[in-house]
Amino acid sequence: MSVSKRDVIASLGQPKVAAMLMLGFSSGLPFFLTGNTLGYWMRDEGTTLAAIGFLSWVGLAYSFKFLWAPIIDRVDAPIFGRLGRRRGWMVLTQILIGIGLVGMSTVGLAAGLAWIGVLALLVAFSSSTQDIVVDAWRIEAASNSDELGLLSAAYQFGYRIAILVSEAAILIVANHFGWRISYTVMAVLMAIGVSASLMATEPLRAKKAFAATAEMPLWTPRGFFDAVIGPFREFFRVYGWLALLMLAMISFYQLPEYMTGPMYNPLYHDIGLSKDVVGAVRASIGLVATLVGITAGGFCALRFGYMRTLIAGVILKMIVIANFATLAHAGPSVPVFGAVIAADNFGIGFAGVALVTYMSSLTSLGYTATQYALLSSAYTYVGKFAKGFSGLWVERLAAGRPLLDAYGLFFIFAGLLGLPALVLCIVLARATRDSSNDRGAAR
Questions:
Q1: Are 358 and 245 in contact, with CB atoms under 8 Å apart?
Q2: pLDDT (tens digit, 9 = 90+) per residue, 188-208?
Q3: Do 252 and 380 fall within a single domain?
Q4: Between vectors from CA 208 to CA 204 and to CA 212, what angle results, nearest 5°?
Q5: What is each CA distance from 2 to 5, 10, 130, 144, 145, in whole angstroms?
Q6: Measured distance CA(410)–CA(412) in Å, rounded
């Protein structure tokens, strides 16, 4: 059934879509507060680049969320279980995120990196758990494919607004009122997510799905095996040996972006860009470039197919990340900074859509939510671990040369880390085409 523009606009006023928009904001807000933005705060306080890189490992919580996803799927949340399984876990995790952010703002860096690391881990763990539940709610709350697309779009829009707030607007607040106040403001904004969870309705389709698939209780060996290993087993059954190449490509695809993540804000700090400038450019040029990149990626996926779009995405990603070497050598030039940010956000937005489209195409009916959680965890394994050494890498490169030259070399080398993903994309494209030809010949 086709949907007119008038129908789409009218549906934006639905409580379900409004809740999804707010939940998308709640999911996106904590992500950078334990990563890139925290790195900016730490660099302001004189923390070494190596320590900033190592502390970014708290983000590994997002990589292993599939391990506790079966528990979240089948067990009610403590205290808030009466709200329903999805809503109860959403409220609990959002409150824990708020508590963690308040703790970070209260303790600050003066108490030592150990305390800030523990609190950042609490935020990251709670945030990754919230992502599991919000993704499940989005899929289960949709009554048809058109509504699922609308809810997904609302989620992405809310998520991007949150990224804008937690990566750009927070810098302006921190510059005028301090980092502690800015993190307190972020904690208060988590109330948006709590409000959305309370106004949302518990999806009834979830109970039917559990009844149809959960033959054994989760706490039994068989039940746990079916919940955790079952999706993997089905994935390899469908794709055979190509599944290993797919997982490897997904793991390497985001490597350049993850590796450079902890070093962006320290670079801005060390070349002398003010927080106001960084925040303003990200909030204006960066936002527009991201939206254009997402649109271009979606168009190319439809027009040329997801494999060609994947290949174009990883090439773009390599180029725009290496281009940060230009900023390292240009210094605090606002025009150069704006151009570099525009190119980067376009390329990252384009590549992100390509990867999400590809991963979505790999899921099997009946395992969609679980397999997507597994795949979205898989693409963080290599990058989340490797980025912990990013600060150490820059410091080693700085031995015997100026720090800004070391930054430049670092971003060039990081861009080249996309080569394994590019090679695997080309191999998969050929293997997929050959498999399709074989199936056609057999018919």
A1: no
A2: 999 999 999 999 888 776 555
A3: yes
A4: 165
A5: 10, 15, 33, 12, 11
A6: 6
